[in-house]
Amino acid sequence: MDIANPRRILIIEQPDSGVLSLLRDLTGTSPTPTTSTPAGLSHTLPLTTPYYSATIPIWIDQIPAARAPQWAAEYLTPDAADVLRALGAFVYVFRKPVDADALAVIKEGLGAVGTVVREGYGGGGGGLWDGVCLAVGTRQSEKPGLDVGAEEWDEVCRAVGFEYVDAEARGRNEFGEPTGLERIKEALEANDWAAADDDTLLPEDEAESGFGAEAAELEREMVGLKMAIYGGGEEEGEEEEEEEDGGAGGQEFQVEQLEAVMLRMQAVRDMSADLPEAERRKFAAKAVSDIMKTL
After folding, report:
1. Is pTM, for the whole model, over 0.85?
2. Which SS3 state, helix, strand or coil, does residue 94 take?
3. Nearest alpha carbon to residue 150 among 125, 179, 190
4. Could you tell me which of 75, 69, 81, 59 has the C-alpha nearest to residue 105?
5. Is a pLDDT exceeding 50 seen at residue 252?
6. Where are the alpha helices (DSSP H) in 60-174?
7. Is the separation of the CB atoms in 11 and 60 below 8 Å?
């Protein structure tokens, strides 16, 4: 059976988690970043089992440093309800900690994602939502790292309804179960990716509150950015003076910033293209809002 419009995977990473390397190991390819953060990128995961085949869209987000509660609050707003409804899996990716402070940040981020799952789907441990929740630890390049055993990771992750997977593990554990990347694939393949038949669209009178309004606001921001880049209404002599004072370097940076914003906007359109209209508006509105915060 082909699943034409499957639910999505939301990957939430801690900064510098190595999420793109993980995606490359998992799928054979990875998206090309357009900014210093992979947040806002999209990808796909082809899955084929004896029971179904599907190409699962992947959305990537990031929990900014010291903003885990705010991140969770944004996903629990009414505007994000349709985004949550489109999801079939949460995958929290973090680099294994080098010290106790890094461990605390990981736990805070995991708790925020757990809060979204618990409260975003009606409470009671996720309500009626039946998706997959994985917490994936990637290799720490600094040696020695903080010694956190597998049992401790399991306990921390289970407390918020997630399964811990060590991305470095290979083979099978003492129970004969696959570990590492193979466990990630197994968990995702076992999930039900078919979207619910009774998903309903928003009332027509909410049509103006989605992508159009947010995109218009972003366009205004981009016009301002263009004016800053190209000098706006400045006189030619003022522009030349600014360049002589070293303004060209700043202009080059702003040009790159503008190009990155435009690429991310296109990515938003691509990511939401096959969503129902109401879900597309809500997803695009949140994504555009996130992009605007970087301007």
Report:
1. no
2. strand
3. 179
4. 69
5. yes
6. 68-75, 81-85, 100-120, 150-158
7. yes
